[in-house]
Specification:
heterodimer; A: 317 residues; alpha/beta; 10-stranded mixed β-sheet; two-stranded antiparallel sheet; 8 helices; 13 strands; B: alpha/beta; 8 strands; 43% helix
Chain lengths: 317, 318
């Protein structure tokens, strides 16, 4: 596909290009990517990659050779939507600091191809591994790091095992997959009560609800049985590496002291050889109830970028 | 004629694109049929909010691919400052819909070899497409889903649903009093208060108007005028609402005024599709998402069967 004409001129010159063939779903071939380069030379490559069902990916490249690479593992369901713009802003901030960042939508979700009914926890991790390899090709021998939000923390931790000593940032990590679905069920009860529904969702728990359709509706998000079953029993402690990583855990809460859950997790991780830093971002996120307001998250993004930068070492003068 | 839908593996192709819009680079994904295109493009313009182009539960992705599987081109995109697009996010303001983004997206869609374009907008996206319709030359249909009839955002809509007594009780709580010190929340409370005051004034007015035998008309001009213009062009219009959405009640009330007259005059050009549900937002249940997708597909099948536009007769009594 021919490159688009460049826009603007001089200091505002930007270049947008679209390249790669148009492929049908499941057709093998090179990636189909659109890119833009802003006036600072920061380049974003967005499109589809991978064999078979293609993954929707966004690669943020600094203007020069990247000094590190970071894979951002998003959460699922409502969290994915609520946190999306923060992840975009984090990626752009890191790229401006010389760090290449890969973001993506898991197969079967978002803009990626694939059947959501076959998604499992292992497949989520497989997708993340695939993208971490792609990122490694981009950054060469430069170090790699991982960011995971909520459910994505479980994925990030799992994938980081293949990169010993890689720094890990976990935003409000889901410490227990079963607890995640329990919270979703409760959020749905709250929604039903607010709406005054005469046919509220059953209260036996998400696991009891899978019916002939094979999925459960969690406030407009389909969760299929394979994902639920494959994730049940997984906890952050159980997926943690026995080889420690520099670790920053950020709780997203307002005016609350660190909860006993986070405190015991921090203790457990310290005993396993990690050096966890636990911090609190002063923002209260209602993960299952979307609002159109964009929460002010600049301090969270800057703090995360700063922490990662320090772990990767200062840039060459 | 309803087309047989091929399997997902061969039905559609997708490719990403950045396109310019008023100094920003917007990102979109074009879904196109793998074979036998109808040469009709459907632009999916969603609501405000910092959410990606796939939509909740991938509803926009599913709709786009489903349409492509049926022979339509589809484009879903991110507004400026949202998702993969550049620029700064803008506040949702009914007085300033995001027409430049919609028009730019329609140009990208037109470049894909389509002869006709359908604009489909959800919630605030519906107001965006209504405001943009006059700037789209190959317009062949407009679909509006759950779009506010009045110029009220979600905070104000929520405020209307609760009684004054409910609001008064919350206003006097310790938490609210503490929150008044925070500028953002203070502004929000101000909007809620303004909404309730407007409701009371409207109620009093309607009592007065009823006593003078004049019908109440409460739809925003930003909703009615573009619809009249669209129907004057003999462009089919599709409107879908959840029956649990306050906007549906507003829409029904507005039938007694100019809006109702415009819709009635257009006759079969207009399809009104209420979806029985207790929720405000049709996206908050998977079954409702599927119903919307199905309803849109059926309406679009009807679009394909329509012939060329003919001029509207002179108006009477308007």
């Amino acid at each position: 596909m021919a490159p688009e004409r460049p826009e603007g001129g001089g200091a505002d010159r930007r270049v947008i290009e679209t390249h790669g063939p148009r492929r049908t779903a499941n057709e093998s071939g090179p990636a189909s990517v659109a890119s833009r380069t802003d006036a600072r030379g920061l380049r974003e490559e967005v499109g589809f990659a991978g064999e078979g069902d293609r993954i929707f990916t966004c690669l943020h490249r600094p203007p020069f050779e990247p000094r590190a690479g970071v894979l951002i593992c998003s959460s699922i369901c409502a969290d994915f939507m609520a946190n999306y713009q923060r992840e975009v802003e984090l990626a752009r901030t890191l790229a401006a600091r010389g760090i290449a960042v890969q973001r993506f939508h898991y197969r079967g979700t978002g803009n990626s191809e694939g059947d959501p009914a076959v998604v499992t926890f292992d497949r989520l991790c497989q997708d993340a591994r695939e993208l971490s390899e792609a990122l490694r090709h981009c950054v060469g021998d430069a170090p790699m790091g991982f960011v995971g939000t909520r459910w994505g923390a479980l994925v990030a931790v799992e994938v980081s095992k293949e990169f010993p000593g890689s720094p890990l940032v976990l935003w409000e990590p889901t410490t227990d997959a079963a607890g995640y679905f329990r919270d979703a069920g409760r959020a749905r009860l709250i929604r039903d009560a607010r709406e005054g529904r005469s046919d509220p969702a059953p209260s036996k728990g998400v696991g009891a609800e899978f019916d002939g359709r094979g999925f459960v509706d969690l406030l407009g998000y389909s969760v299929y049985r394979p994902l639920y079953e494959s994730a049940r029993g997984r906890t952050l402690s159980s997926v943690m590496d026995r080889r420690p990583h520099p670790l920053l855990i950020v709780r997203m809460a307002r005016g609350q002291r660190r909860t006993s859950e986070t405190a015991s997790l921090a203790t457990e991780l310290a005993e396993a050889g990690y050096d966890p830093q636990v911090e609190q971002a002063e923002l209260a996120e209602s993960w299952w109830f979307h609002t159109d307001a964009v929460l002010r998250v600049r301090p969270l993004i800057d703090r995360t970028a700063e922490w990662l930068e320090r772990r990767f070492g200062s840039p060459d003068p | 004629m309803r087309r047989t839908v091929p399997t997902a593996e061969t039905a559609w192709r997708e490719f990403p694109a950045f396109f310019p819009a008023e100094g920003n680079d917007l990102f979109g994904i074009v879904s196109e049929p793998a074979e036998s295109p109808e040469r009709v493009g459907v632009l999916l313009a969603w609501g405000g909010g910092p959410y990606p182009s796939c939509g909740r539960n991938g509803v926009r992705t599913r709709l786009a691919r489903s349409l492509a599987g049926r022979g339509f081109h589809a484009l879903r995109f991110d507004y400026a400052g949202v998702g993969e697009s550049s620029g700064r996010a803008r506040p949702v303001r009914f007085a300033a819909p995001w027409t430049s983004d919609v028009v730019a997206a329609s140009r990208l869609l037109a470049e894909q070899g389509v002869d006709r374009i359908v604009l489909l907008g959800n919630c605030f996206g519906g107001r965006n497409v209504l405001a943009s319709a006059s700037q789209v030359d190959q317009l062949t249909g407009v679909a509006v889903i759950g779009s506010p009839v009045l110029d009220l955002d979600h905070t104000e809509m929520l405020a209307r649903r609760q009684s004054i007594g409910w609001h008064a009780k919350r206003a006097l709580s310790a938490k609210t009093i503490r929150n008044v010190a925070r500028p953002k929340l203070r502004r929000r409370y101000g909007r809620i208060l303004a909404t309730k005051i407007r409701s009371v004034i409207r109620l009093l007015r309607s009592h007065i108007e009823r006593s003078h035998d004049s019908p109440p008309t409460s739809a925003s001009p930003g909703f009615v005028e573009p619809i009249r213009s669209i129907l004057d062009r003999r462009v089919p219009l599709f409107l879908a609402y959840s029956t649990g959405d306050p906007a549906w009640s507003d829409f029904c009330r507005a039938q007694e005024g100019d809006l109702g007259r415009a819709l009635a005059r257009a006759g079969p050009l207009v399809t009104v599709h209420p979806i029985e549900a207790s929720v405000r937002d049709l996206q908050t249940e998977v079954a409702l998402q599927d119903q919307v997708i199905e309803a849109v597909q059926e309406w679009l099948d009807g679009i394909l069967a329509l012939g060329t536009q003919r001029p509207i007769p002179d108006r009477e009594g308007d």
